[in-house]
Amino acid sequence: MTRISFLHTGAVVIPVFAELAATHLPGVEVQHLLDDKIVADLGADPEGRDVAGRLGALGRTAVAAGSEVLVFSCSSISGFAGALQQELGIPVLRIDEAMADRAVEAGRSVAVVATLPTTLAPTAALLRERAALRGVELDLTEALAEGAFAAVSSGDRATHDSLVAAAVLAQTARHDVVVLAQASMAGAAAGLDTGGVPVLTSPELGVRRVAESLHLPTRA
What we know:
Helix 4 (about 80-90) links the parallel strand 3 (about 70) and strand 4. The chain has two domains: about 5-95 and about 205-215, Rossmann fold, CATH 3.40.50; about 95-200, Rossmann fold, CATH 3.40.50. The mean pLDDT is about 90. The protein has helices at about 15-25, 40-45, 50-65, 80-90, 95-105, 115-135, 150-155, 155-170, 200-215, and strands at about 5-10, 30-35, 70, 90-95, 110-115, 140-145, 175-180, 200. By secondary structure, the protein is of the alpha/beta class. GO terms for molecular function: amino-acid racemase activity.
């Protein structure tokens, strides 16, 4: 049986990806690997704490356990995917790549919203990368939902979601599409009246991309 591993930087998203995997990856064994200090360490000292080495160790754990694909569920670490794929010899997929592709298809004026600068910059870079592959130039706005990360870190999910929703709505009037940079933000966008402006999140689009990479039929 095929096995894949998700590499997470926060435990809060593990149930989300477990549910999506059950829906979109039938017959696939899923392993969840976690280092919940990586985002904080990248913020405090981007060049230190040996984040690349820690990701490599987790990747080698996945390979040793028989995983054929490793998936980064966090945008903050997406820049490490290419080097790690070369090291491990298996595909290392970025959960937000499919979302970035969808955003580029949806319009040229794009806003990316995050709760952390360490996630905002890599997501913006990924959007520009995917746009460049299509030979297009984006009018890209980067916006932080100030206070949202502190709220959710203290256990106040309601305040987090409210702040994220407000940040999203502030961008919908001026852009063709809004991108949420973190998988953990996905729930905050549910049910928002955006006037028809799409708000894209990475978890489901990313897991569907994983299914495509494994040549599994995607579900509607």
